[in-house]
Write a structure and sequence with these properties.
Helix content of chain B: under 10%
Radius of gyration of chain B: 20 Å
Number of strands of chain B: 23
Shape of chain B: globular
Radius of gyration of chain A: 11 Å
Number of strands of chain A: 4
Helix content of chain A: 25-40%
Shape of chain A: globular
Strand order of the largest sheet of chain A: 2-3-1-4
Oligomer: heterodimer
CATH class of chain A: Alpha Beta
Number of domains of chain B: 1
Strand content of chain A: 25-35%
Order of helices and strands of chain A: HEHEEE
Structural class of chain A: alpha+beta
Strand content of chain B: 25-35%
Distance between the termini of chain A: 14 Å
Order of helices and strands of chain B: EHEEEEEEEEEEEHEEEEEEEEEEE
Number of helices of chain A: 2
CATH architecture of chain A: 2-Layer Sandwich
């Protein structure tokens, strides 16, 4: 599953790549009060935030796909 | 635990409704004193066996670290608030917990006069925090909305589909729970449930909690024919009614081939225009009940007398290489036709007494069905 397929998987949502572990992502999201969904594919951790009103925290490990 | 919850003369706030349910499923002694919103005069705790769920947390400070008390003001809510209550329960095997989330439907943000103006959702999740941060929440479902109605602040990862759980006047909810499941049946409308399943070696290898989120809508069509089986003749009671607006979701599943991990996996979702296309249909075979008009859910017993068929529930995540998982046998539930009797009637299934829930709308009964559950 490449990044384009990942975007299709989460159609209609902003998709981000996280350069870290699931636990690190969870720590970051809990600290910022953000519920999220994940997909791990091709050894890469993607996540989405369905609530469009929330701001994604600034973190060097996060890249929008 | 089985609580029949009735909304009284005035509609109640969804946050108050989910707090009531939350107190009941986490109480060591469920009783009507847990209720701050549902009518204490009309609601009944039918089975006060503790449900065995644990409160994890919620978004509002008033719901941390425990659910607000029954006297808490229940005015809901800013339009941008994502409010919830989160719960967990262990599974029979493995150490991973199953999670469920109760969420008000943000009804204040429905931008047109849809039929839903007051409701909530039951979803599954793979994790939740003490502050209500949810990881991999399943899709939320909305009651029928008029064509063109939009809902803002849609925070789930499901399309806008018919939902089932209203807290309006006239609503009766049957809340049944034990450590294996939480099932909320909206009388004559449908159900939303978190059901533990049997586990598989794949679950063991990856440490996955074996459970599913399941919703089924029982008031989706005005056309139906439900002749009761009265003879051994070819009386069909089936219509193509059951799966037209249903969803089946599992969480945190990994495909052994390639290692892709799906936080949320909708293995079958068919709700009209909301049909899921991102995960692929056909990866289920929930061969639990005949669904087409040439199938029947009645049979005969050994004496030739008419008898309804009671259907165990099972499925397979065939698209990602999982063996069959059984719901029935872990969660005490069978699927049946509607109109076997009245809600609350008891049915003997292989020596165990089940309670029948008749999801049958007087007018819109084309997708009606029944559930059999034990209540303890």
């Amino acid at each position: 599953m490449n990044s384009e397929e990942v975007k299709n998987h989460f159609a209609g949502n902003r998709v981000y790549l996280f350069d870290g572990s699931k636990d690190e992502l969870n720590d970051l999201m809990v600290a910022n009060g953000i519920s999220y969904g994940t997909l791990f594919a091709n050894h890469q951790l993607y996540f989405v935030v369905h609530d469009q009103s929330l701001s994604i925290p600034t973190d060097e490990r996060i890249t929008e796909v | 635990m089985y609580a029949k919850l009735v909304v009284g003369a005035s509609l109640i706030s969804p946050i108050a409704a989910i707090r009531d349910i939350g107190r009941l499923i986490t109480s060591a002694s469920p009783n009507t004193a847990n209720l701050g919103a549902f009518s204490t005069a009309s609601s009944i705790i039918v089975d006060n066996t503790p449900a065995g769920w644990t409160y994890v947390g919620g978004v509002l400070a008033n719901d941390q670290p425990s659910i607000a008390n029954t006297s808490m003001a229940t005015t809901l809510l800013g339009t941008n608030n994502s409010v919830n209550l989160c719960f967990s329960a262990p599974c029979l095997s493995g150490s991973a917990l199953k999670y469920c989330v109760l969420t008000p439907s943000n009804f204040t943000t429905v931008t047109s006069a849809g039929t839903l103006n007051n409701g909530f959702h039951l979803t599954g999740a793979s994790n939740a925090s003490s502050t209500g941060v949810v990881t991999n929440e399943g899709p939320r479902y909305y009651l029928n909305l008029a064509s063109g109605v939009t809902v803002v602040n849609q925070t789930s990862n499901g399309p806008l589909n018919p939902g089932f759980l209203s807290s309006n006047t006239g609503t009766t909810l049957h809340v049944i729970a034990n450590p294996r499941h939480l099932t909320i049946i909206s009388e004559a409308v449908g159900h939303a449930a978190i059901w533990e399943t049997s586990t598989t070696d794949v679950h063991t290898f990856y440490g996955i909690a074996p459970f599913m989120q399941h919703t089924m809508y029982g008031a989706g069509s005005s056309t139906a024919s439900f002749p009761t089986a009265t003879s051994t003749g070819p009386t069909y009671i089936g219509t193509s009614r059951v799966y037209s607006q249903s969803s089946f979701t599992v969480f945190n599943v990994t495909n052994p081939v390639g290692g892709t991990n799906y936080g949320v996996y909708n293995f079958f979702l068919n709700a009209g225009s909301g049909q899921d296309t991102t995960h692929g249909n056909g990866q289920w075979h929930m061969n639990s009940m005949p669904v087409t008009s040439n199938q029947r859910n009645n049979t005969i017993n050994s004496a030739g007398s008419p008898r309804y068929i009671v259907n165990p529930i099972f499925f397979q995540l065939g698209g990602i290489g999982y063996p069959v998982q059984f719901v029935t046998g872990v969660t005490p539930v069978y699927l049946t036709s509607s109109q076997l009797g009245n809600t609350g009637d008891t049915v003997d299934v292989n020596g165990t007494t089940y309670t029948f829930f008749n999801v049958y709308h007087a007018t819109y009964n084309g997708t009606s069905y029944g559930l059999l559950m034990t209540t303890g």
